[in-house]
Amino acid sequence: MDSFVGAFWTGFSFKTEPELQPWFQVAFNVDVRVKRVIVVQRIDANGEQFVNVSLTLGNSSAQMSGDNPEIAFFSGPSQTGRIDVIPCTMNIDQRGKYFVMQKKTTDGQKLHVLTFAEILIYIDEDLCVSETCGRYPDPEYYANPRICSVWGEEQE
Asked: What DSSP state is assigned to residue 49?
């Protein structure tokens, strides 16, 4: 999320609050097609917690509704320090404004977190969303950082 992707963790990472099915959402201004997602795991810990992660894309902003089609599923587990390339091969023609990455859990009331060091979202003609909330070449056209939902809240 600092636009540095490499072998070294730069001191910042994304982490949700503990919840039953933690999630991360990017809201785009226009319909996009996601081709692949690259998730860079932290190098200090917790890579193995990146497991059973669903990627959805659609026009429903309600991340828990299940209305948006799944475009990929990462069964994992990942590893600390690993770079995971997730091809979006399900519903390949799906377009939408809301991209959601959500950890799917089945263990009842146990709380989980979703954490990673960096995410890159490749859309349409291989444009890359290289930071949280869509800061990449021409952010005004594709993504609006003011409506990027993290932990269920609007972020400025």
From this structure: G
